[in-house]
Design a protein that fits this description.
Helices cover about 55% and strands about 10% of the residues. The relative contact order is 0.08. The chain is built from 26 helices and 15 strands. The termini are far apart. The chain is an alpha+beta fold. Strand 9 and strand 10 form a beta hairpin.
Amino acid sequence: MTDNSIGDEIVTKFLANTCRLRPRPSKRAVQAAVMCAAVASYHPQQDADAEYIPTITGSVAEFYIEPMLPHVGDVDIMHHINSRLAIPRGHPPPRQLPAEFHDYVKVGEIIDSHWPGYVYLKFRYLLTKCVDNDSYSAIKYDTQLYMTVTHNFKLKFEAHGPARMPPRLDKNHLSMDLVPCVRCLSWPSQAAGWSSRHRNYEWPDSATVDRVVSNGCDVVGVVHRQCRQDKLMSRFQWRLSFSRTESVLLNSWTPVQQIVYHLLRVYMKSEQLTESANNSQVRKLNNYHIKTLMLWACELKPKSKSWWTVDFSVIKICVGLFHTLAVWLTETRLPHYFISSCNLVDESLDLEMIANRLLLIDNDCLSSWLVDDYIRQSVRVCPESISQLFDEVGTKTKIENAISAVVSWRLNAAIRDLFSVFYFAEFQITSGVSVHSLSPWSCMCWMNELSKIDVHLSMFFSAIAFLHVVKEIKRRGLLKNLIMSLSVITNQLIVSSNYYNELTFSLLSKVLTLIGKCDSPADRNTAELVELLQQSAVELLTTFRRSMARDTSPVATVVTTDFEAIYAYKCGDYQRCLQLSTQNIRTVWNCVNMTDICTYMYPELIQLLDDDIVSLTALTLIVNPACRYLRRYVSIIQLTLSLYLMTQCQLKLRHSLTSLAQTLDYIEVAQRRILAADWTLDQLTVKLAEHKLLTYITTRNNIHRHN
């Protein structure tokens, strides 16, 4: 459609102006954090005292750009057991371990297999933590036993190659790959040459190399393709993994390098040159081959005018790398970036076909694909009025105008997208805490991972966790595990005390003092603790709402006192609740999107409401248990909740019939607007409020007539 120079200019402008750099909270990051915490909440079946230590890897951890065209297909979570450790062959047993490790650690020595990069783990030592200090003593195993690759992961995840994937609850959720591994704190001897080899262009720099080497590697439960049918090797063979290292290296890339890597992956997938779930029988390349190509290119290509600069030619770079890959495939060699003896391609791949296809790619071919395919796919997320601009773009001017419109929309959409992430995060965190049990380690994981995204998300989690503990106290009492979890959360919150007011800090300090007195059942004042936890939760939730309102105010109307109103009602302060609810209704009444903000009716939050709402929610779950996993079935929007609270408060305060009639008018209008949104629990709640009002008004009128 356009000559190459125009295409290059258009694509460069489009990518440079629409790829966000280090975006604010994203849905993929939130989902990865929630899954990390879910993994941390379970214990290995073979060692109930041990913990799973999760780490986010893969595309979510590697990309800091956010193109318009989605570029993350799933979330990769590696998890190792803290009672297992790998060491390079011949290394002495470690005397010091990070705090995450168990008091008893079984150590496997890394033994090479006949396939480079694939190894076995032979049990060599049992480490025992000394009582009087943090060091470990070692006992040598006199055995020929090897670690198996089977991890009896308790979650009911679907098997998917070496990983285990939880089911996707809806199309908006990324799939999950959960990969079991064994941690190796030392850099493996198989990759010894990587850190010392000469680099002409100083990438990665010495500081990054030192950081990478000091972080060691992992050994993942992956068997070589040609050994999968062997019953013995399929149980005991592992693969060296450098996923942590790759995340560090890719995050040190320039935006240009990340954009090029993204485009290479998208093109190879769209042209069916990489493997996919729909074409699993054909041996083709995969994303790791593309990543390896890019890692070598970043090390071997100079940062000159022709490579990796602001004035880059994305088309020329991509074409050059495709041709480099074609040459390597023709020569049947794609050297592993870390292990020099490992070749990532062999004759089992359709090398000739792929190489020939890659050699046919030229500037004109790639330019046409980028303009006619990549950009057109990207703009599908835009409003129709903007995406239609690409229907007739026969001239350079028309294309530039269309791209300018997209760039403008993309910039303006940033706040809207941020609001969408907060909305998404509320549901993910609430449902995650409710579904998965809390433990001290999972609480630490929740707090750490969410704080990396946005500190206010960790506050929201803390509030839901406090309410979860209250629920558990009422069910089973104040168990030791709950005390330890509260201690982790409260200490973490106090460290971040500059984010909230004096009242919140005072409440948290009192919580910390109370749980410090819980050494024996006789010292446990659960009634006072429950009240403090509920108050603290409401204050944290209100702080979260205020943060959300401040950051998203141009695109969304966020009521910040809905949790205060709920708590006032629970405490019997009906006048305060009525005042707040009336104010909240006025705030959201004329909003275009009334269903933007809601409260999720999971047990943690529903305990703050009355028995009628509890019963109503329970009925929806009895009719359809799957409702608990879908947002629109377990949520009540701010307008509905405020109308219900207003109704209840007016009835308890015995307001005039005129006042009640006005509330009925509000309800009648709200019913029509909620009906259009098809939110089940909202419709039922509004009908309940209407029924209460009509019953009360009818009774009052009957009494008045008889008198």
